[in-house]
Each structure stands twice: as structure tokens, then as C-alpha cells.
Amino acid sequence: MPFTILVTATSLAPAGLRILEHAGCRVLFLRDGNSAAEVEGILAREPVDAVISRTVELSGAAIRSCPTLKVISKHGVGVPNIDVAAATAAGIPVYVTPGANAQSVAELTLGLMLAAARKLAWMDGELRAGRWTRAQDGLQLSGRRLGLVGFGQIGQRVASVARALGMQVHAFDPALRGPCPVEGVVLHASLEALLPQSDVLSLHIPLNAHTRGLLDAQRLALLPRGAIVVNTARGEVIDEPALIDALRSGALFAAGLDTMAVEPLPAGSALAALPNVVLTPHVGGSTPAALEGMATGAAHNVLGFLAGRHPDPLSCVNPQVLSQNERSIA
């Protein structure tokens, strides 16, 4: 029996789409790529077996409206747009695609770090405005200390390159088990121990109840004066008004941000007005290579589950449902 798959976007990378079509799936897309109401409408009227979720909200009402829905896979790793509690209550596993975009996000992290340290965006703007303004206070990263909050695949890749640049690398990750996976990295037992050792701080953590507002004014004050903050995780993990205050006062030298608390960035944003902030529009995982990796990973997740070949339980954010799910899916 062919399966019906809903992709909550207007498209999917060709490699992922080919996998679904080769399996004989009927693939549905959104007409409006940013409409939670359209997602709910499709699920309420179509016999959808699986959802590949992009950035559009997948609400509890949408999940409950579709009695045929059996599995959800995020096209990526962050699931704040998915009502995981509603999926769990319905016995529906929610998978992610860990590592698929790790290299692209790590590379953007390093790019933001270098751009913030050397004031690249500001100097580019000066030149385009006809001014030959040579900044004399850019920072050399070699010899400085990089602090990584979260030390999964992205953090580990950033650490390897940072060490090659001559940086001393420190990390904190309460989920890390066993020996340090990157030689020469100093692991810390708490965030409060890491922050004073971080001339550059880079965030690589999911957004959840424990991490929302994690980097608040009190913790920002623990960073060395003149530190740089880089965020390619989720904007909400930083207390944004506190970050802006620290950037304005000079407590922080600069910030490089791929994610903000409100996206798209609203008109008149205080962040956009600061000359010591480098901003990108949440594109860390948006290279063609990363999009193909996430699309193929999500396609394999849903097809594997629907065929009775359970994907890696470590990629399931609500694994408790796997032992409960006894429904026939063929």
C-alpha cells in the first residue's frame, strides 16, 4: 500500500524526494510555506501516514486531527515547532536527523566568530559607503579561549578547527558521557565554571524548558570583559535584552548571531542597529549539502518506521512511545 507523506514546506531537496517517490509514496506539499492553518487543514482531510516537518508549526490540534498519522520526522534536530507532547499522547514517534547539518552549521559558526572578531561586516559597510576606515581593534583569535556550550557533533567540529587556529578550547555538556571526544579540549562540570574561561562563547544546545533564557544577564556577567558571543543554536536560549545591554556597554566586544528571539528580525530591531553585531538569517543548516542530508535522513526515518524497520531510537525525541506502538503500519 503506498503511503501518503506530508512535507510541511513547498519543497524538499531532490535526494529526499527521490527516496519517497521510489518507495511509491504520494507526497504532499504546502502551497503557503509558512501556514500552520494549512498544515492542520491537510491533516484533517487527507489520510496522511507521516509528516516531514520543516519550520512551520505542527500543533497538537493538527496532530489529533489526523487519525492515520503514524510517524513524524523533523527535517533537522530542533523540535520547538512540533507539539511533541501531543504526538506522545497519540503514540506517534517524533524523529530528528542528527548530524545531517552539523558540518554546515559548524562552518557558519566559525565564519561568525571570525567576522565578529575582525569586524568584517562593519568594515564592509564602511567601504561601501565610500569611507576607507581601517579598524585597529579587531581581535586575533589564536591564543584566546573558546567556550562551547553543548559538545555534540557541531561543537566537536568547531573545536577541531578552533584548535587548529591556535585557540584553547573549553566545553560544557551535561549529556556528554565517557572520555572527551576531541583531544586537548578541557571539559567543565558546570556552565558557571565554563563562562569565566570563555573569551569567545559559542552555543550549540537545543531549545527546551531548561535552556530558554539560559544565557541571562547574570551569566553574561561571568564572561571575561570584551568576550564574543556566537549563537547558531536558537535565539531564545539568550536573554536578548541582556545581550544588547552588554554589547552597548562594552562588556562584550561583539556577537555573531544566526538565530534571534523573534524571526524574521522585526523592523527597528536593536540588534540590527548595533555595529558590533554580525547577523545572518538562520541559515546555518541551509547549504545544499545540509538540506540534502536532512531531507534524506527524514525520508529514511519515516519510511523505515512505516516499513516496520525502526530507525535508531537515539534519533527519537520521545522513545517511550516505541515500546508502546504496536499498531500495524503495513
How would you describe this protein?
The protein is α/β, with parallel strands linked by helices. It folds into two domains: 4-98 and 288-324, NAD(P)-binding Rossmann-like Domain (Rossmann fold); 102-279, NAD(P)-binding Rossmann-like Domain (Rossmann fold), CATH 3.40.50.720. It is 35% helix and 15% strand. It has helices spanning 14-22, 36-45, 60-64, 84-89, 102-118, 120-128, 153-164, 191-194, 217-220, 240-249, 270-273, 288-306, 320-324; strands at residues 4-7, 26-29, 50-53, 71-74, 94-95, 145-149, 168-172, 186-187, 200-203, 227-231, 252-257, 277-279. It has a seven-stranded parallel sheet with strand order 8-7-6-9-10-11-12. A five-stranded parallel sheet has the order 2-1-3-4-5. Helix 3 (60-64) links the parallel strand 3 and strand 4 (71-74). The protein is globular. It starts with a strand and ends in a 6-residue tail after the last helix. Residues 326-330 have low confidence and may be disordered. This is Hydroxyacid dehydrogenase. One of its GO terms (molecular function) is NAD binding. Keywords: NAD, Oxidoreductase.
